């Protein structure tokens, strides 16, 4: 498994570049960058020379990231199909919805394929490096899509 260090300064601003990772579709080195789109703002993505785009996404956040991932990939965005919210008794919460991350990922990939994209996922071991703080490495899921180029 690949290992990637992402370094921040004391103000938690990215220093240097986001390292490259292997593309999930062609295994070439994909250049890393910080994203600035919707719920993915300050998240991480990778651009491969083959045209694939990789996005770091936590499965437990798929309900919030779903639409933005499709948009970053250059696909028609849509909201995921979720169960309707249900009241949470007298807890003070307005509603609760169970989010099945793996099922939403399968649905996201099916949607991307229906729009003509090739998709894959990979895992990368990532260590966030911040002055005065030492984090343990964590496993990140990177979701990849390559959309067919449109004839010009």
Would you kindly provide a written description of the structure presented here, covering whatever features stand out?
The chain has 152 residues and is α+β, with helices and mostly antiparallel strands. It has one domain. The chain is built from 2 helices and 8 strands. The chain has helices at 62-72, 101-114; strands at 3-7, 21-22, 29-34, 44-47, 53-56, 118-130, 133-134, 138-146. Strands 1, 2, 3, 4, 5, 6, 7 and 8 form an 8-stranded mixed sheet that branches. α1 runs parallel beside α2. The longest helix is centred in the last third of the chain and has 14 residues, at 101-114. The N and C termini lie far apart (38 Å). The mean pLDDT is 89.
Question: What order do the SSEs take from the amino end to the carboxyl end, as H and E?
Answer: EEEEEHHEEE
Helix count from the secondary structure assignment: 2
Terminal Cα span: 38 Å
β-strand percent reads 25-35%
Largest sheet: 8 strands, mixed
Helix percent band? 10-25%
Shape: globular
Specify the structural class.
alpha+beta
Low-confidence stretches: none
> What number of structural domains do the residues give?
1
The total strand number stands at: 8
Supply Rg: 17 Å
Mean pLDDT: 89
């Amino acid at each position: 498994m690949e290992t990637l260090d992402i370094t921040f300064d004391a103000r938690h601003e990215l220093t240097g570049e986001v390292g490259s990772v292997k593309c999930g579709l062609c295994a070439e080195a994909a250049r890393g960058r910080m994203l600035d789109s919707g719920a993915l703002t300050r998240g991480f993505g990778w651009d491969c020379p083959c045209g694939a785009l990789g996005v770091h996404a936590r499965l437990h956040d798929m309900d919030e990231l779903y639409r933005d991932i499709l948009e970053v990939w250059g696909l028609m965005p849509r909201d995921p199909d979720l169960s309707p919210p249900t009241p949470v008794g007298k807890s003070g919460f307005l509603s609760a919805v169970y989010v099945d991350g793996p099922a939403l990922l399968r649905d996201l990939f099916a949607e991307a394929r229906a729009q003509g994209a090739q998709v894959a996922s990979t895992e990368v071991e990532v260590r966030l490096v911040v002055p005065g703080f030492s984090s343990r490495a964590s496993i990140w899921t990177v979701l990849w899509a390559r959309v067919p180029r449109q004839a010009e």
